[in-house]
């Protein structure tokens, strides 16, 4: 396969449909000495947490290479670039703006605007300032108010440079992976933490939406959630109940409060010490209207009832990506249709979709047929959902380029552009060329 193709009548082939590429600050920037430490610096310094014992001090050195990287983005012909702001780069220890950090981003935003590339700015993609973690991080309600202040300051500083804001990226990952099973920063383990952290993250989202309505009423403002659809292994009631529980615990826990103003009913089954600390007015803040919903999709999980582990998925059968994640595009269509049936949805962007694959570079070329085919089947899965009335208005490939893949370090490559970390040379992969062709042939 050399091409990503879609049915000729597809809404994904109209000029209005937004195509973009996405990155996140900690994963690409480096420029470590020009910002405050964050929880991922500390996590990387903790033995045994990162597969290759690496860190984010240099990463793709985007801090120094951002101009060439914008050339690269422009050369792909995309309509939009989704980036995140490093909170510890733009805010000082005393909570004021750091002018040098702000300039780094305003220069990038100005350059994107000059080239007519829409800037989709994520305000939090996991790099919490370490000084806030020292006060309890997302277990401390005050962190939500610190986020509110940061959002107020940074969005005023950005003025009219931005097209769209996302408050948070994947609060599931911050709360569950970071504060419940400990495989992401800050690495806490305990069921008594996960839902408490989740609530403060959602509160931070609600507070930030209120700020954005005031400081940036003309941008599209929303949130980015990840979904890993849960399927029962068999039609037995036990397996169906198990998958439903997992879906409520892992996916709908973040969606339902935003859309419906309350947590899934399984909240009534949780032991008291696992419960979030909900104050009067919190759920109203959390469920304020959003202009759009960002959906990140990678894979599904299959569940079999188990006497003790209520939401332990079974090991996936192939085909798998290099992350060990099952490639199952039908579940992308199923997910979008389910959401459409369950909620009254705003327009949606696919804010991330893509695959890590074991790439090799040969004679200056990366022939990543497996990733190319992932994009082909998943874009068609999105198309199939639009046929059933789901309103998807854009799609972002994760990721623009290979980068620091969190607990996997530099071992997993998600880019449509290959990065040689020794030389910082970028090479567009076959998938990147195919993505470019899809966009320009619309
Ligand atoms: S780990 C994760 N990611 C990857 C990361 O690079 C990016 O920053 C994130 O936004 C790629 O996209 C997101 N997300 C976790 C998704 C959970 C999938 C669960 C699979 C379980 C088998």
TrEMBL record:
<keyword id="KW-0326">Glycosidase</keyword>
<comment type="similarity">
    <text>Belongs to the glycosyl hydrolase 1 family.</text>
</comment>
<dbReference type="InterPro" id="IPR017736">
    <property type="entry name" value="Glyco_hydro_1_beta-glucosidase"/>
</dbReference>
<protein>
    <recommendedName>
        <fullName>Beta-glucosidase</fullName>
        <ecNumber>3.2.1.21</ecNumber>
    </recommendedName>
</protein>
<dbReference type="InterPro" id="IPR033132">
    <property type="entry name" value="GH_1_N_CS"/>
</dbReference>
<keyword id="KW-0119">Carbohydrate metabolism</keyword>
<feature type="active site" description="Nucleophile">
    <location>
        <position position="352"/>
    </location>
</feature>
<keyword id="KW-0136">Cellulose degradation</keyword>
<dbReference type="Pfam" id="PF00232">
    <property type="entry name" value="Glyco_hydro_1"/>
</dbReference>
<keyword id="KW-0378">Hydrolase</keyword>
<dbReference type="InterPro" id="IPR018120">
    <property type="entry name" value="Glyco_hydro_1_AS"/>
</dbReference>
<keyword id="KW-0624">Polysaccharide degradation</keyword>
<dbReference type="InterPro" id="IPR001360">
    <property type="entry name" value="Glyco_hydro_1"/>
</dbReference>
<dbReference type="InterPro" id="IPR017853">
    <property type="entry name" value="GH"/>
</dbReference>
